[in-house]
Design goal:
The complex is a heterodimer of chains A (301) and B (222).
Chain A (H helix, E strand, L loop, with lengths): L1 H19 L1 H35 L4 E6 L5 H13 L3 E7 L1 H12 L2 H7 L7 E6 L4 H12 L4 E6 L2 H42 L1 H9 L4 H44 L11 H27 L6
Chain B lengths: L4 E11 L5 E11 L3 E5 L6 H8 L7 E6 L2 E2 L8 H5 L2 E4 L11 H12 L3 H14 L15 H13 L5 E5 L7 H16 L3 E5 L3 H7 L2 E6 L2 E3 L1
Parallel strand pairs in B: 3-8, 3-9, 6-7, 7-8
Antiparallel strand pairs in B: 1-2, 1-4, 4-5, 9-10
The chains are: A alpha+beta (301), B alpha/beta (222).
């Protein structure tokens, strides 16, 4: 209980100390906030591109074309395979007659087609996979190519795969940026806490002399650093959220011109908590490194 | 009443890096509840001896035993807890000038982990004892030399230590102030606190007629 009260007192003191130096605190929080808002902002952007692309594309489909000489039994065989395949979600059989009908109707090619005299189109299946994971689509395609009487397998929405790859690169960049700026954050808190330790050198020395343990001396500095990190995370959240709101105002105009509706999603509750937690944790690490590095240098003599 | 050894220093030598021999083969015992003066010329090793007792420095050879605990064999993690048995008064005061009088005295209790209400009670009691009760909110810098010294005493006794160690507590005070301070030490001693004072103030010692440990160039004159 005393132990808990001690922590509570330290928290109170640290908040007071931060409030006593409002400008320094504000600047620190801003530096941390801006550093963290960059990866957080990119992350939000990336997430939105992903949602947007899902809105645009219908599910990618695999078209499976039979050979021209495939018999009804061959077709039934393929149908059987598709029905039993674990990765297949839905599929639809398009007979060569129906395909011809559709073509005649849709593209105004009726004259050309009737001149041909015979139906140039094969039987086909249009397959939708169980999910749109590019790896599953690709393996399904590769497998279907080997089936008997299958002439050609076409994976539609190749662009979805390319976008996915691009998003993968984007995610990697966000991670790299995040790691870099987290390292910067460690350095920032390391230095802030170092300055704090130096200005409170006498206090540390006296405390050691009259029986303070190292954890006791370390504690206020860890609180100070972690609180600043937390506040910095809050600032980053605010920056990202406000920037998102501002962008949304502009976007609605643009998007209405194109006749669709789209709004930027802000950080989810889960991601917000992660952002705050990460900022606090990284700042804690910086403070811990700093206190551990500098504390032993202050030995009373 | 069984008398126990509170401080036992045996065959202690201290040589600093660079070869300066501060103490050489010093042996003595201070019983619990005793009041002892360490005297000697400046540079005789008085401060070093106090630092060895308070585990601020470690002896080069020999052993220092405080209340049955061998200080030189102690793990560094245990030393803070040993120090809580001491009330320390330093030659250079070591007051925190950016903290109020109250906060300076509260520090040892905060370190020990007392609840805030208990701290307030004890700090007031300690300030009352040294006559600084009205100055709680003042900064130490606004206090006179004698008042600063009394503030040091309040900080040293606030956690009710078993041993009071004072390094030149009357250093640059005039006689009236010095007598007042020594009077306080006597009253702590009367309630059972072991008191060790390093001083070169011969006048004070003559009047009291206490036990004296005389240091001369790092050796104890018996």
């Amino acid at each position: 209980m005393n132990w808990l009260l001690g922590h509570f007192d330290t928290l109170r003191e640290s908040l007071l100390r931060l409030a006593q130096q409002p400008l320094a605190t504000l600047l620190n929080v801003l530096v941390i906030g801006i550093s963290m808002s960059l990866p957080a902002g990119f992350y939000v952007g990336l997430n939105n591109v992903q949602t947007f692309s899902r809105q645009l594309s219908s599910d990618p489909q695999i078209s499976l074309f039979m050979t021209m000489d495939a018999s009804a039994e061959d077709v039934a065989g393929i149908e059987q395979r598709l029905r039993n395949h674990a990765d297949v979600g839905r599929f639809e059989f398009v007979s060569r007659e129906r395909a011809l009908e559709r073509l005649k109707r849709s593209a105004g090619l009726a004259d050309v087609l009737s001149d041909l005299g015979r139906n140039p189109l094969p039987d086909a299946f249009v397959v939708t996979a169980r999910n749109n994971d590019p790896a599953i689509l690709e393996s399904l395609r590769a497998e279907a190519v080997k089936w008997a009487n299958v002439e050609h397998v076409q994976l539609d929405a190749e662009w979805a795969r390319r976008l996915d790859a691009a998003l993968g690169v984007g995610r990697l960049l966000v991670s790299l940026l995040g790691a870099l700026l987290a390292t910067a954050l460690v350095a920032i808190t390391f230095n802030t806490i170092r300055l704090q330790i130096l200005t409170r050198r006498d206090e540390i020395e006296v405390s050691k002399l009259i029986g303070a343990t190292n954890p006791f001396i370390r504690r206020p500095f860890l609180y100070l650093g972690t609180l600043q990190g937390l506040a910095g995370g809050g600032a980053a959240w605010l920056i990202v959220t406000l920037a998102g709101m501002a962008l949304n105002l502009q976007l609605t105009e643009l998007v209405t011109l194109y006749g669709t509706s789209f709004a930027l999603e802000p950080l989810s509750a889960r991601d917000s908590v992660i952002l705050l937690g990460l900022s606090a944790a990284v700042a804690w690490l910086g403070s811990w490194l700093s206190v551990s590095r500098h504390l032993w240098q202050i030995e009373p003599r | 009443m069984a008398v126990s050894q509170m401080i036992s220093v045996s065959h202690v030598s201290k040589r600093y890096a660079g070869g300066y021999q501060a103490l050489q083969d010093v042996t003595f015992v201070v019983e619990s509840g005793e009041m002892v003066f360490i005297t000697g010329h400046s540079g005789a090793g008085k401060s070093t001896l106090l630092k060895l007792i308070a585990a601020i420095e470690m002896p080069t050879s020999g052993s220092v035993i405080i209340n049955g605990q061998n200080v030189s064999a102690m793990k560094s993690g245990a030393i803070p807890f040993l120090r809580r048995n001491f009330g320390l008064m330093f030659q250079d005061h070591k007051l925190l000038f950016d903290r109020s009088v109250y906060e300076n005295v509260a520090l040892p209790l905060a370190i020990t982990g007392f609840p805030r209400r208990e701290i307030a009670k004890r700090v007031r009691a300690a300030l009352d004892k040294v006559g600084l009760l009205g100055r709680e909110k003042s900064r130490p810098i606004t206090l006179s030399g004698g008042e600063q010294q009394r503030l040091c005493i309040a900080r040293a006794i606030v956690n009710r230590p078993a041993i009071l160690l004072a390094d030149e507590p009357t250093g640059n005070l005039d006689t009236a102030y010095a007598e007042e301070i020594i009077g306080m030490f006597e009253s702590f001693n009367q309630v059972g606190v072991t008191v060790v004072i390093a001083t070169h103030d011969e006048g004070m010692i003559e009047r009291l007629g206490p036990r004296i440990l005389q240091l001369d160039h790092g050796r104890l004159d018996q």
